[in-house]
Predict the structure.
Amino acid sequence: MNYDHVINLVNDMASNFMVLDDQEVDVPAAGKLLNRLEEVIDEAKTQEIWPLKRVATGINVLLEKIVLNTVEQKDGGRAFEKGLIKMQEISNSFKNKGSYDEDVEEYMQSLAELTGSTLKAEEKQGTENDASKVEKESPPEPGGDEEKFEVQDESLLKDFITEALEYIGEIEVNILNLEQDPGNTEYVNAVFRPFHSIKGVAGFLDL
């Protein structure tokens, strides 16, 4: 198997990893990371790199909770960085010897404790079943954290709208450029990149 593509995806995530410590949530950057994580998960499933799929799915949940401020950004950022390092180790190990000998359970347990969500191991590799899904924590009591989420979501929604309008402006400019130079692949990529970012954050916000 050719593992170079998945290695490039993981390395790209690592090189573009945003510093979360003591900063406001960067919604556009989070959208890009969520898109990249989705690609990694799909590629890991296709190539049957199950430890990579498991870790990537776990830090996908972590990133969503960081954006929603249900996980402290400082702690979440450290855990996210550890997950990226783990993903690099797994992908490189599969390229070099076709397997990964280390256990990811300790890291997954730390994610479960941090996020309140448990990602169980798949009972059968290569199949999707209920055991592979994330078990969400119990719903908050009325008047508790749920109301807080709504306020945070409203703030995130405003940020998303502002950023989306800026992206749309970029898209319009590059579409005009593309009309003048249809063969320019840089303009094509410049049109699609903002769409992917908008799609990623919109999906995360259930829009």
User: Anything to note?
Assistant: The chain has a mean pLDDT of 77. The longest strand covers residues 118-119. The two ends are 37 Å apart (CA to CA). Residues 27 and 119 are 24 Å apart (CA to CA).
